[in-house]
């Protein structure tokens, strides 16, 4: 089983969106028992809360389920439990690398999956309000990631 963890700041916008989108793609390809997905935040502000209304609205409009996804904070055990730890921006990468155990983890920046895009970080829609653009990037990036995982298996 391959384990993927998406990480953003508060775990209510970008990373749960990526979790839900990748789960949806995994189910569509009937790979449920082969790839597991989770998300977490580097901060503890929203622990136990569901995805942000903007995230849930766009996921619902795309027919993507997100039930059961609640915010949690990254922990030391995540660095050994996950094969891929994918952060949404430079700040979250820096926060991850400061945590104990990170020196042994494979941390990837999400936008490295999309080298042809102009932006190098997934913008935080909590501040920008642009959930459509974040969804576009996440849809493209999770497709690249899933193909990469399938090829590596």
UniProtKB/TrEMBL annotation:
Keyword Hydrolase set for record: yes
CDD domains in the cross-refs: LMWPTP
Domain Phosphotyrosine protein phosphatase I: 2-148
Keywords: Hydrolase, Protein phosphatase
Broadest EC class assigned to this enzyme: hydrolase
UniProt GO MF annotations: protein tyrosine phosphatase activity
E.C. number: 3.1.3.48
Pfam families: LMWPc (PF01451)
InterPro entries in the record: LMW_PTPase, Ptyr_pPase, Ptyr_pPase_sf, Tyr_phospatase_low_mol_wt
SUPFAM superfamilies referenced in this protein's UniProt entry, alphabetically: Phosphotyrosine protein phosphatases I (SSF52788)
Family recorded in the similarity comment: Belongs to the low molecular weight phosphotyrosine protein phosphatase family.
Protein's name in the database: protein-tyrosine-phosphatase
